[in-house]
Specification:
Helix Hairpins; 631 residues; five-stranded mixed β-sheet; rod-shaped; abc type-2 transporter like fold; 76% helix; 3 domains; mainly alpha; 6% strand
C-alpha cells in the first residue's frame, strides 16, 4: 500500500460522520483563531491607552517670576495631559490617587507637587532645584502598565524640560538685551560726558583768553590810582582851611549864643520884678481900702500894660535857645570838618583810585564772566553725563548675574535638566520575568489542566453504569485532575522560586492561591469534557486563546479592543493573574481574596455542570454505544 493510499484512508476515517467533519474544520481553524484573535487584540495596544485609568494630582501653587510673569506649570502640564488623551486621566486628590492605585482603580498616579512651578523658576534666582514629578505605580495592577507610565512620564519630562529650557534661554537673552540697553544708555551718557568735557575745555580756553584783558584792566587801575594821587595832592590843605573856617564860625556862634542868653536872663529878671511889683500894688490898694473888684480891675490894667514885655521876653528866650542850638551845631560842624580835613587826603585818594580801577576791571571781568558761564554749562553737562554713565553702568551691573562656581554649575545642570521623576512603587515586580510571572503561571496552569484530560476520563463509566449519584460521579472525575494539577503546581512553583529565582512577597499564600487556580481550571475543563466530550477539548483550546488575549497579562487589559472587554470580566484567567500579582508583589491581600471568591464561584459552577453531565449520561444512547472517532 502506497503512502498516498494510507493518507487517503486516514483522512476518510477521520471524516466519517458529521462530528468528525466539524472537528476537522475546527482543527483547521485553530491557527486562524490564535493568530487572528491575538493579532486583533494586540494590533496596536498603544492606540487604546486612553482606556487605561490613571490618576492625576495637581497640587502646584504656581509662582511669579522676577519680571512679574505668572507660571502655573503644574496646571499647564495637567491640561496638556488631559487634552492629549494618552490615558484616561482623572483629576483627584492625593489620598484618592494613592488608594486608587493600591486597589486597582487606577493603573498609576501622576502627582505635580505644590512647589513644582517655584522649582522651575529657581534657576532664574540662582537657587536651582529640579521640579519633581511623582509617579506612583503598582506592579500588582500591571507590570507593563508601570513601564508604559514611565515612558509617558519621560515624555512629559522632556516636554516640560524643553519648555522650561526655552523660557530660561528667553530670560537669559532678555537679560542680555537689558544689559545691552543699559550699556547703550551708559554709552550715551559717556558721549554727553565727552561733549560736556569739550565745552568745559572751550570755556576754560575763553577764560584764559579773557585773562590778558583782566591784566590790562588791572594795569590801568594802577595808572588811574597814580593820577588820582597826583591830582588830589592839595585836597588836605583845602579841607584844613574849611575846618579852620568852621572853627571860627563855631566860636562866633558861641559868643552870640552867650550874649543872647545874657539878654534872656535880664529879660526874665525884668518879668520877675514886674510880677513882684504887681503883688505889691495889689497889697497897697487893699491897704488903702480899695475893694477887691477895684484891685482886680487895676491888676487887669497892669497886665494889659505888661503883655508886650511878656511877649518880648518869650521871643528873647526862644531866640536864646535857638542861638544855643546853632552854636552846638556849629561846633559839631567844626568837629566834622576837622575830621574830614584829617581823612580827606586818604579818602579822596582811595575813592579816585578804586573808581578808575573798577572801570577797567569791569571791562576785563565781562570777558571772564562769559567764559565762566560757558565753563559752568559745560561742567553741568559733564556732571549730568557722569551721573547717567554711573546709573547706566550700575543698572547694567545689577542686571548681570555673578554666581559663584558651584551655583553656576548647579544652575547650568538644572536648566539642562529642570525636571526629575520620583518613582513611588506601592509594589514592585523587580524584573521583567517577575513582572510576567503571574500571567505565565496562570497560563501554564490552564495548559496543565488541559493536558490532564487528554489522559483522564472526565466521568467514570463504571459509576455511570452503576447509576451512582451524579455529584459523586462528577467529584470522582474532578478529584484526579485536582491531585495531578496540585502536583503540577508544586513542581512549577518550586522551579520558579528556587531555580529561576523569582521570590513572591507572600510565598505560602501565592502557592495556596495557585492551587485554587489549578483546581478551578481543572473544574472548568472537566465540565467541558464531561458535557461535550471531544468538542469540550476544542472549546478548552479556544478558551485558552481567548484568555491569552484578554487576561491583561502583558499590556493592561484596557488596551484590548472594546469588543473584547467582556472576555476579561467573564473568563477566570484574568482573576487568576490579578490575584497572583498581588500575592507575588505584595499588594493588598483583600484584592486577592476577592479574586479567590470569583475562582471558587467558577469551581462550583464547573462542578455543577459536571454533575449535570453525569446526570445526563446515566442514559445510554446509540452514539455513546458506537461513538464517532474522537479527537
Amino acid at each position: 500500500m502506497s503512502a498516498l493510499r494510507m493518507a487517503f484512508n486516514e483522512l476518510r476515517r477521520v471524516t466519517s460522520g458529521r462530528l468528525p467533519k466539524l472537528a476537522v474544520v475546527a482543527l483547521t481553524l485553530v491557527p486562524l483563531l490564535y493568530a487572528a484573535l491575538y493579532l486583533y487584540a494586540n494590533k496596536d495596544p498603544y492606540a487604546h491607552l486612553d482606556q487605561v485609568p490613571a490618576a492625576l494630582v495637581v497640587e502646584d501653587e504656581g509662582a511669579t517670576a522676577g519680571d512679574g510673569t505668572r507660571l502655573d506649570a503644574g496646571h499647564d502640564v495637567a491640561r496638556e495631559l488631559v487634552d492629549g488623551h494618552r490615558f484616561d486621566w482623572r483629576r483627584v486628590d492625593a489620598d484618592r490617587a494613592e488608594a486608587g492605585v493600591r486597589d486597582g482603580t487606577f493603573t498609576f498616579a501622576l502627582t505635580l507637587p505644590a512647589d513644582f512651578s517655584r522649582a522651575l523658576l529657581s534657576s532664574g534666582e540662582f537657587t536651582p532645584r529640579q521640579g519633581v514629578i511623582v509617579l506612583t505605580t503598582n506592579d500588582a495592577n500591571n507590570y507593563l502598565g508601570s513601564t508604559i507610565a514611565n515612558q509617558v512620564v519621560a515624555e512629559v519630562r522632556r516636554s516640560v524640560s524643553a519648555q522650561v529650557g526655552a523660557e530660561a534661554a528667553d530670560r537669559l537673552l532678555l537679560g542680555f538685551s537689558t544689559v545691552r540697553q543699559r550699556t547703550a544708555e551708559a554709552a550715551e551718557g559717556a558721549t554727553r560726558l565727552a561733549s560736556g568735557q569739550q565745552e568745559a575745555h572751550d570755556g576754560a580756553q575763553r577764560l584764559a583768553d579773557g585773562t590778558p584783558a583782566l591784566a590790562d584792566g588791572a594795569a590801568q587801575v594802577a595808572d588811574g590810582l597814580t593820577r588820582l594821587r597826583d591830582s588830589t595832592g592839595d585836597l588836605p590843605a583845602r579841607t584844613r582851611q574849611l575846618a579852620d573856617g568852621a572853627k571860627r564860625v563855631a566860636d562866633g556862634n558861641e559868643t552870640v549864643a552867650e550874649t543872647a542868653e545874657d539878654y534872656a536872663a535880664k529879660a526874665q529878671d525884668l518879668v520877675n520884678r514886674l510880677d513882684t511889683a504887681g503883688g505889691d500894688v495889689a497889697a497897697r490898694l487893699r491897704a488903702l481900702g480899695f475893694t477887691e473888684e477895684q484891685v482886680q480891675r487895676v491888676l487887669g490894667v497892669l497886665g494889659d500894660a505888661r503883655r508886650p514885655v511878656d511877649d518880648a521876653n518869650a521871643q528873647v528866650q526862644g531866640a536864646a535857645g535857638q542861638l544855643r542850638a546853632l552854636a552846638g551845631g556849629a561846633a559839631q560842624v567844626s568837629d566834622g570838618a576837622a575830621r574830614l580835613a584829617a581823612g580827606t587826603p586818604a579818602l579822596a585818594e582811595a575813592v579816585t583810585r578804586l573808581t578808575d580801577g573798577a572801570n577797567q576791571v569791569s571791562t576785563g571781568t565781562a570777558r571772564v564772566r562769559d567764559g565762566a558761564s560757558a565753563l559752568l554749562d559745560g561742567e553741568r553737562r559733564l556732571v549730568d553725563g557722569a551721573n547717567q554713565l554711573r546709573d547706566g553702568l550700575n543698572a547694567g551691573v545689577s542686571e548681570i548675574p555673578a554666581p559663584d562656581d558651584p551655583t553656576r554649575e548647579s544652575t547650568a545642570h538644572t536648566i539642562g535638566d529642570p525636571v526629575s521623576v520620583r518613582g513611588v512603587s506601592q509594589t514592585s515586580a523587580g524584573t521583567y520575568g517577575a513582572g510576567l510571572a503571574p500571567f505565565f503561571l496562570g497560563l501554564a496552569t490552564w495548559i496543565g489542566a488541559y493536558v490532564l484530560f487528554l489522559l483522564l476520563r472526565p466521568l467514570s463509566r463504571r459509576g455511570l453504569a452503576a447509576g451512582r449519584n451524579p455529584l459523586r460521579v462528577a467529584v470522582g472525575g474532578w478529584l484526579p485532575g485536582v491531585l495531578l494539577g496540585a502536583a503540577q503546581v508544586v513542581v512549577m512553583f518550586a522551579a520558579v522560586t528556587l531555580v529561576v529565582g523569582i521570590r513572591p512577597a507572600h510565598p505560602v499564600a501565592a502557592l495556596a492561591f495557585l492551587l485554587l487556580v489549578s483546581a478551578t481550571f481543572v473544574a472548568v475543563l472537566h465540565a467541558l469534557n464531561a458535557l461535550f466530550g471531544a468538542v469540550g477539548k476544542f472549546i478548552g483550546l479556544v478558551l485558552l486563546i481567548l484568555q491569552l488575549i484578554s487576561a491583561g497579562g502583558t499590556f493592561p487589559w484596557q488596551t484590548i479592543p472594546a469588543p473584547l472587554h467582556p472576555l476579561h470580566h467573564g473568563l477566570p484567567m484574568g482573576y487568576a493573574v490579578d490575584g497572583l500579582r498581588h500575592l507575588m508583589y505584595g499588594g493588598p491581600s483583600g484584592r486577592a481574596g476577592q479574586d479567590a471568591l470569583v475562582l471558587v464561584a467558577y469551581l462550583l459552577g464547573g462542578l455543577a455542570l459536571a454533575t449535570f453531565a453525569a446526570y445526563k449520561q446515566r442514559v445510554w444512547t446509540p452514539s455513546r454505544l458506537e461513538p464517532e472517532p474522537a479527537l
